[in-house]
Structure formats: structure tokens, C-alpha cells
Amino acid sequence: MTGPVATVSDRCAPVPSGTSGPVPRLRASRRRHVADKPRRSMLLTALTALVLLYSLVPLVWLAISATKTQEGLSRSAGLWFDRDFALWDNITETFTYNDGVFTRWLLNTLLYVGLGAGGATLLAVLGGYALAKFDFPGRRAVFAVVIGAVAVPGTALAVPTFLMFSKMGLTNTPWAVIIPSLISPFGLYLMWVFATEAIPTELMEAARIDGAGEVRTFFRVVLPLLAPGIVTVLLFTMVATWNNYFLPLVMLKDPDWYPLTLGLNSWNQQAATAGGDAVFNLVVTGSLLTIVPLIAAFLLLQKYWQSGLAAGSVKE
């Protein structure tokens, strides 16, 4: 009985200042507990709420407006429903209007995204891996070129690209949109950073010692480790190609090769032409249908692209 009693009395006894004991340890534990708690900032919370509101209001307006008829768009408030719910009728009319040209624009966009964004991702993966894990003459020069290319907007290159493609006879063809989409300096830089952090050099050397060639090492060892970065680059290039407007506007004049962005804009402008029909309800509905695949892609692949964005941000 004396042992436990003595232990309890020792715990309850005051500890002189300057000595180590339960009280200083308790205070240190409390300080660590307070330090582990995330700090809350009302200013950051308010800014986040404003950004969220800025992002969601256009989507809410688009979803609500897609349920209205052409007349309902003008007789009802922008952020509230009309008395006639016409979403399904608008979707049906969007796919059947003008001999179903919306379906053709959708297929064109899928073609541009599949070949352009897919090819850009493939080239970014190969180039980023080579720059990250192989040493060769001119590596620093390539780095400078890539960083400089990231800073150049795509619109600044559209007119020179058009002049070059017109001499080659490629304008007004799908290749005029696909070939420029294959180059993604930001995707190359992102894969460079990701491959540097995600692929241990020791693992590659172990695979080579075991007799694996460079191709087998890449597909069996490197590629699984690059999966988050690949998905991230694919999403970025896919969104850039899907939403591309200025390049197709410069390169294409045949409506049969329009992507969705250019096609919906032609529907929007036909109300201002002589004898043109105002089909703003179809423009709004088509815009809603256009963003659905992008939202679905981000939701399905969010665990990959979030980890890909964090690559290289923390180095142990």
C-alpha cells in the first residue's frame, strides 16, 4: 500500500521551480497540443468564401438557366426557375438542332482532346522523365527553354502558327488544332518536378543490376510511380484542349470541324445576323453539357491529381 500511496503523493506534491517534474512536462504537453491545433483566420475564411461564391454562382446560373425556354430566359430572374421546366426539351433540341451538328462538334472535341491532350501527356511524361533522371549535354539549356516557354501565352503563338500551317496546307483541317496541342511546356515542367521527387535513383539502379533494360525499367518500375503526375498533366492538358477557343478560331473555317467552344459561339452570334434565330436556351444548355465531362473527370480522378499537385512541394 505504501508504494502506490507514495507515488500518488509524489504526483500531487508541488515541484520547486527550476526542477524537472510532472508540472513542467504537463505544461510542455499543453504547449505541444496548442501548437498542433490548426490556426484559424477569419480573413482567410472570408476570402475562401468569396472565391467559393465566385466559382459557384456562374455554375448555379448555368444549371438554372438550362431549365428555361427561350422566352423564360427573359421573363424570369437569372438565379431562379421559370414556371416552365424545359431541361429535357432543351437537351433534346440541342442534339437535334441544325441536323444534329452539336453531336459533330462534340465528336470533334473528343478527337482533339484524345489525340492532342493524350499526345501532350505522353510527350510530357517521356521528356520529364528523361530530364529528371538522365544527364546529357545541354540539359541546362533545355531547362531554360522550358521555363521560358511556360511564360509565353498560347494566344501569342496562334498567328505565327497559322502562317506556318497555311504554307504547309494544314489550315482548316483537324491537324491544325491537334499538332499545336501536342506541346505543353507546363506539363513537361510538372512531370520534370514530379519525376525528380517520385522516382528514387536507387530503385532504378537496383532494376538495372537485376538485368532490366531501360524500356522495362520505365514500364515496370517508373511508370507506376508516375501515375499521380500523369493524371495531373492529363487533366491540365485535357481542360486546355477542351476549352481551347482562339486556336480553332484562327485555324478553322469549316463548321464541320468546329469544336464545342467555337460551335456554341456561332449559335450565340447567329441572333445578331439577318434572319438568324435566337437560340440562347440551346447555347446555355450546350454549355452545361460541355462542362459535365470535365467535372466528372476531376471528381473521378481527384485523389491522383491532388497528390500530383503536391509533388515537390515538401522535400524531406
Task: Give an account of the 3D structure.
73% of the residues lie in helices and 0% in strands. It is mostly helical. The protein has a single domain (45-72, 84-309), classed as MetI-like fold (Orthogonal Bundle).
Total domains: 1
CATH top level is: Mainly Alpha
Low-confidence stretches: 1-13, 312-316
Which class best fits the helix and strand makeup?
mainly alpha
Strand content: under 5%
What does the secondary structure layout of this molecule look like, with pairings?
Layout: H1 2-12, H2 22-36, H3 42-65, H4 70-75, H5 87-133, H6 139-150, H7 155-168, H8 175-181, H9 185-198, H10 201-209, H11 214-225, H12 227-242, H13 246-251, H14 260-269, H15 280-300, H16 302-309
Helix pairs in contact: 3-15, 5-8, 5-9, 5-12, 5-15, 6-9, 9-12, 10-11, 12-16, 14-15
List keywords for this structure.
single chain, mainly alpha, MetI-like fold, 16 helices, globular, disordered N terminus, disordered C terminus
Question: In a nutshell, what does this entry contain?
Answer:
The chain has helices spanning 2-12, 22-36, 42-65, 70-75, 87-133, 139-150, 155-168, 175-181, 185-198, 201-209, 214-225, 227-242, 246-251, 260-269, 280-300, 302-309. The chain has 316 residues and is mostly helical.
